[in-house]
Amino acid sequence: xxxxxxxxxxxxxxxxxxxxxxxxxxxxxxxxxxxxxxxxxxxxxxxxxxxxxxxxxxxxxxxxxxxxxxxxxxxxxxxxxxxxxxxxxxxxxxxxxxxxxxxxxxxxxxxxxxxxxxxxxxxxxxxxxxxxxxxxxxxxxxxxxxxxxxxxxxxxxxxxxxxxxxxxxxxxxxxxxxxxxxxxxxxxxxxxxxxxxxxxxxxxxxxxxxxxxxxxxxxxxxxxxxxxxxxxxxxxxxxxxxxxxxxxxxxxxxxxxxxxxxxxxxxxxxxxxxxxxxxxxxxxxxxxxxxxxxxxxxxxxxxxxxxxxxxxxxxxxxxxxxxxxxxxxxxxxxxxxxxxxxxx
Length: 344
Prior knowledge:
single chain; alpha/beta; UDP-N-acetylmuramoyl-L-alanine:D-glutamate ligase; 9-stranded mixed beta sheet; 29% helix
């Protein structure tokens, strides 16, 4: 199998509770390094990204021990490398500040990879690609298209702090993918935007800064009536299932809400079914949560690998859940071989 991963590569500085500091490359390298452990002999993983010359040698060093990774899709960015500072508070909530903006990945850079078996689009910065580029990808791609909503739901304020908001025209983004993944906060943002659109006759958008003063809770609007008939916040399993069905009604065959420690809920359509089915998986036991950075990326890597192999959303969700549980026990980028024994 051949899989492309589209999104930016950050240089991350992670400030852990207790004063520990980690500096490493991140962004779609979390997808890439996890996927490199999961693929078989002869499979290939292609990160499609932009990075500055200041970090290119580090990128090559990190991936040198992973023969399944081909970096021919990584272009040098004259702006340098996207840099991100991540701080954890005492509740393990992340506060992120971007200190360098790198322009979007162009369609011309992506076009040579349109014949891959899957393209995973992961929004690391929020404007990693434009809507027009995604429309061109959708028109030309021959394989599975997978969206990790991620920072598509985060804007950036003047100081570089991430800002929660539902993106304009988010329904157009969603409709172009076969599989869509998001966490519970992102799901609530989109459900709330659907409610605002229903009430006003137009797209809804909100903006809550994600910065130190707001780090104590998930924030963002709750999911109200207007998207899939949701009555009140997304809290119970049935709420997330109803929300997932409203997302699959837009076009995707699969919608996954990861939900952190509560475990993922996957809603999926099958040929001939009148109503989308649902798979609810409890979170995998974790001895100690060290760093949640990259857990959603690890989940996506696991899901894509199993889904391409089995076409079974339930099996793919369960593998992805195990992969994410291992990832949260590691600080920073995982070392080679961390996920070798996760597949069963």
